[in-house]
């Protein structure tokens, strides 16, 4: 039986990835600082551990795994990443995890390691026009990410690819673009825009108003988690090392995303734009390279994914309300 290790398995994407690998017949070990908040893990073995500690990483990587997925990171939405208040933690924690994990995999002669980078590593100057952002993979340099989170991702990309060159590893690097969906964080300050908007709309009565950070004209593309997992497994098993975008090319403004959620709710709700962290003005996945190298790209519409996500978050918010 093939074995897989999912680091960050208590998180949103990691939880979905574990389910996928189990369906494929893998024996799966999951590792995280915490259990999954919104679902029981399907991992055969789930270890609570801090991957910043070398001793923990040695215990976790105690054998050869056929596939390793490194999703563990200190991260969150705009309210966490762009305020500047968490920069030291974000850079130190994530870089330490990657240094420890990669070294341990090398020493166990594990070849195939997937690393989840982020579109946040793209240069800020290429994302100033909300209608025409440039996020082609070859636009990464000269480097100028809009956050320290992005700088750490860029460093770690280079780290994984250096291990390929120097030690004959077969690491694969993807740049995720705003992954969303069911069983993800939807409150508490680390949630991403789709989840935050779903929560706000779900908890706002008919005729009420929700607040949206910035002027709402900033643009993004959002990828449903099932598509992300599909692209992730395809990349790790391919002969292309990346980096490559895993994201949707369906770009939308944040105000229009809010309107979509309001429409899905069936309510009549107004939008009030307020000052707040908003990141770059425009960001959209460029999928030319993934089409060329993997013969694949995501196809699900944003609305289809948001429909599932809103229904799940509205139900969770209602359950919580009923408990209090």
From TrEMBL:
Gene3D superfamilies, alphabetized: NAD(P)-binding Rossmann-like Domain (3.40.50.720), UDP-galactose 4-epimerase, domain 1 (3.90.25.10)
SUPFAM superfamilies: NAD(P)-binding Rossmann-fold domains
Domain of life: Bacteria
Record flagged with keyword Acyltransferase: no
Keywords assigned: NAD
Pfam families for the chain: Epimerase
Keyword match NAD: yes
InterPro entries: Epimerase_deHydtase, NAD(P)-bd_dom_sf
Domain called NAD-dependent epimerase/dehydratase: residue spans: 4-247
UniProt-recorded name of the protein: UDP-glucose 4-epimerase
């Amino acid at each position: 039986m093939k074995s897989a290790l999912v680091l960050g398995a208590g998180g949103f994407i990691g939880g979905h990835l574990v389910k996928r690998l189990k369906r494929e017949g893998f024996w799966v070990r999951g590792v995280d600082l915490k259990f999954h908040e919104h679902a029981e893990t399907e991992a055969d073995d789930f270890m609570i551990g801090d991957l910043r500690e070398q001793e923990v990483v040695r215990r976790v990587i105690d054998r050869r795994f056929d596939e390793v997925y490194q999703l563990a990171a200190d991260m969150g939405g705009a309210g966490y990443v762009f305020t500047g208040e968490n920069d030291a933690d974000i850079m130190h924690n994530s870089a330490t995890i990657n240094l420890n994990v990669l070294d341990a995999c090398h020493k166990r002669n594990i070849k195939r390691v997937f690393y989840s980078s982020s579109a946040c590593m793209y240069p800020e100057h290429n994302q100033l026009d909300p209608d025409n952002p440039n996020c082609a993979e070859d636009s990464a340099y000269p480097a100028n990410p809009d956050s320290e989170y992005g700088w750490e991702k860029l460093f770690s990309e280079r780290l994984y690819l250096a291990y390929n060159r120097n030690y004959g590893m077969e690491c694969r690097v993807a740049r995720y673009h705003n992954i969303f969906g069911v069983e993800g964080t939807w409150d508490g300050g680390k949630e991403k825009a789709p989840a935050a908007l779903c929560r706000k709309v779900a908890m706002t009565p008919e005729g009420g108003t929700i607040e949206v950070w910035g002027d709402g004209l900033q643009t993004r593309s959002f990828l449903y988690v099932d598509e992300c997992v599909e692209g992730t497994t395809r990349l790790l098993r391919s002969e292309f090392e990346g980096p490559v975008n895993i994201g949707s090319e369906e770009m939308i403004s944040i105000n229009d995303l809010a309107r979509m959620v309001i429409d899905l709710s069936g309510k009549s709700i107004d939008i009030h734009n307020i000052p707040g962290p908003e990141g770059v003005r425009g960001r959209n996945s460029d999928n030319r390279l993934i089409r060329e190298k993997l013969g694949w790209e995501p196809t699900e519409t944003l609305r289809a994914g948001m429909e599932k996500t809103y229904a799940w978050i509205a139900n969770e918010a209602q359950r919580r309300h009923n408990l209090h």
